[in-house]
Specification:
The complex is a heterodimer of chains A (285) and B (259). Chain A is mainly α. Chain A has two domains: 41 residues; 216 residues, MetI-like fold (Orthogonal Bundle), CATH 1.10.3720.10. Chain A is built from eleven helices and no strands. In chain A, helix 4 runs antiparallel to helix 10, helix 4 packs across helix 11 and helix 8 crosses helix 9. Chain A is flat, with a radius of gyration of 23 Å. Chain B is α/β, with parallel strands linked by helices and 259 residues long. Chain B folds into two domains: 177 residues, P-loop containing nucleotide triphosphate hydrolases (Rossmann fold), CATH 3.40.50; 64 residues, no CATH class. Helix content of chain B is 34%, strand content 26%. Chain B contains seven helices and ten strands. In chain B, helix 5 links the parallel strand 7 and strand 8. In chain B, helix 2 packs parallel to helix 4. Chain B is globular, with a radius of gyration of 18 Å. The chains are: A mainly alpha (285), B alpha/beta (259). Chains A and B meet through helix 1, helix 8 and helix 9 of A and helix 1, strand 6 and helix 2 of B. The structure holds adenosine-5'-triphosphate and magnesium ion (MG). The site of magnesium ion has 2 residues of chain A, from loops. Chain A: It is found in: Cell membrane. Chain A: Keywords: Cell membrane, Membrane, Transmembrane, Transmembrane helix, Transport. Chain A: It is a multi-pass membrane protein.
């Protein structure tokens, strides 16, 4: 039993420095802390404001006689979204979604496993961390040309890039969450004879969950960025490719429509993880 | 009362070795605790009380010396015989009160002792709060909850590290009465660490006074007020007299160090 590795952490509980979860390297409160609109009235006013803004934009574009190739009108974008969706947007959307999720699943699985590994074997941390930092700070889109030389123009290079963008984010946040687990809680588990696995399952993992969720949220947003960016570089697939295509043809309302789809995707990711956070980690609020 | 020795501490020392310095947190500590005895440990902050308790729990090894529980050498935590109550209640915030109490049973893969848990919840005045999350309970309720969690394992020995340190004076008195009530019923062997000298005298059969750096046992005070005790005990002259003398010890060892 690893009683020894606790020994040198124990009695500074009184210093009250033990962080009860929450703000890791990436501050949750900034992203997840936006207050949710409550009640029909509030939701209605938020929607009403959005309608006013869009309508205003429409009229400004009309009054200033702005050409569609300079700035497409909201109505044109919306019309295109509805009429062209099955023909122009559905397929690239599925392509992006597919690569994104594949990359996310592979990346986060590896990231989470590495986080568990460095928690169980703290000595490994100093060997792994430098690479993780490099991966987190380097834009993975930059790798795409190289990966395409190696793996061709199919899904593979993009999936790899997305994994490399999401994995380290998940890893860094999860590892921080695991490591920050209140030493007294670990001691509590040990005093009841918990095995290392039980400590993980019953104490470390739930304690780190809010941070893991943030890791997933930020990682996914990085992943989407990489997905769309990579499609813009080459390969002839996905929403990113459509952005390049429509802008080169100066079909700005279609371009706008794709942009709206990408933005919706991003907001969807954000909302999903905010929802998960509220559902599974509400104790951390 | 001539009971068997429950905890035997023999020449225990604990040295912390950090990169920059070496701290002798506990030095040559030798004492024993009898079965069913209530011992309180007092001493200035940083004198090694927590360290001593952790050595007794088997959670970390002493640098030298031994601890025997019922004559058996302690090398690791004994989940069935020793219960720990930590500072700050230490309830898992994502579990309800009852789920927290069930946690040790789950870890040990044992069926929950419903009868005992129910009884303890009742004594602790926590009936009706089983499904509340710790965030929804008051400080005192959380502490009672963590005591219930430990007692539900029916350990022979209860080690408590300043469990009421964070509570206000009134809640603290209430907690003390609650603890005595439970103890008088179960007669567990208790080692209770506290900053408060009056709390120690109120609760204990014996008070161990520790001197800091290195943490040694400097004095043992027998407290033989009859039981059950009530809260007015703290105004009796004899109580105040003991209080003063222990205070002088603790204060003296704090300011007069260097000898
Ligand atoms: N992990 C550690 N590494 C180095 N020194 C330590 C460590 N833990 C405790 N110490 C030192 O050992 C001494 C005793 O600490 P301990 O926490 O046991 O004191 P305490 O009596 O419980 O104090 P308090 O009343 O403030 O809780 C202190 O001087 C402290 O600085
Ligand atoms: Mg302490």
């Amino acid at each position: 039993m690893a009683t020894d590795n606790l020994a040198d952490k124990i009695p500074d509980f009184n210093s009250a420095t033990v962080n009860q979860g929450g703000n890791g390297p990436v501050d949750v409160s900034a992203i997840a802390g936006i207050r949710r609109a409550k009640g029909l009235k509030e939701i209605a006013s938020v929607i009403a404001l959005a309608i006013v803004v869009v309508t205003l934009l429409e009229f400004i574009l009309i009054w200033t006689h702005t050409e569609a190739y300079v700035f497409p009108k909201p109505t044109a974008i919306i019309r295109s979204l509805f009429t062209d969706f099955p023909t122009l947007y559905w397929k690239p959307l599925t392509q992006t979604v597919q690569t994104f999720f594949l990359g996310l699943i592979i990346g986060s699985t590896i990231g989470l496993s590495l986080a568990v590994l460095v928690t169980l074997k703290p000595g490994l941390d100093i060997f792994i961390s430098p690479y993780i930092i490099i991966l987190v700070t380097t834009p993975m889109v930059a790798l795409i040309p190289f990966l395409m030389l190696k793996f061709g123009f199919g899904m593979t290079p993009r999936v790899i890039a997305i994994s490399l963008a999401t994995g380290p984010m998940v890893m860094i946040n999860s590892a921080t969450g695991f490591r920050r687990t209140n030493a007294e809680l670990i001691a509590l588990g040990k005093s009841y004879g918990a095995t290392e696995f039980q400590l993980f399952r019953k104490i470390r993992f739930p304690f780190a969950l809010p941070m893991i969720i943030v890791g997933f949220m930020v990682g996914s947003i990085f992943g989407l960025l990489t997905a769309v960016g990579a499609e813009m570089v080459g390969g002839g697939m996905g929403l990113g490719n459509r952005l390049i295509y429509f802008s080169s043809l100066v079909q700005m309302s279609q371009f706008g429509a794709v942009l709206v789809i990408v933005a919706t995707f991003g907001v969807g990711i954000y909302s999903f993880f905010t929802f998960i956070n509220r559902k599974w980690a509400s104790w951390d609020a | 009362m001539a009971q068997a020795t429950r905890i035997q501490i023999t020449d225990v020392s604990k040295i912390y070795q950090t990169e920059t310095k070496t701290v002798e947190a506990v030095k040559n500590f030798t004492e024993s605790v009898k079965d069913g005895e209530f011992v309180c440990v007092v001493g200035a902050s940083g004198c090694g009380k927590t360290t001593l308790l952790w050595c007794l729990s088997g959670l970390h090894p002493a640098t030298s010396g031994t601890v025997h529980i019922d004559g058996e050498l302690l090398t690791k935590p004994l989940p069935d015989r020793i219960g720990m109550v930590f500072q700050d209640s230490n309830l898992l915030p994502w579990r309800t009160l009852i789920e927290n109490i069930e946690l040790p049973f789950q870890i040990k893969k044992k069926a929950v002792n419903r009868k005992l848990v129910d009884e303890l919840l009742d004594v602790a005045g926590l009936k009706g709060f089983e499904n509340s999350y710790p965030g929804e309970l008051s400080g005192g309720m959380k502490q009672r909850g963590s005591i219930v969690r430990a007692l539900a394992q029916d350990p022979e020995v209860l080690l408590m590290d300043e469990p009421f340190g964070a509570l206000d004076a009134f809640t603290r008195e209430e907690m003390n009465l609650f603890l005595l009530k439970v103890w008088e019923r179960t007669r567990k062997t208790i080692v209770f660490v506290t900053h408060s000298i009056s709390e120690a005298i109120f609760l204990a059969d014996r008070v161990w006074v520790m001197s800091p750096r290195p943490g040694r046992l400097s004095r043992i005070v027998d407290v033989d007020f009859p039981r059950p005790r009530d809260i007015d005990l703290q105004f009796e002259p004899k109580f105040i007299e003991i209080l003063k003398s222990i205070r002088e010890d603790v204060e003296g060892s704090k300011s007069g160090k260097g000898q």
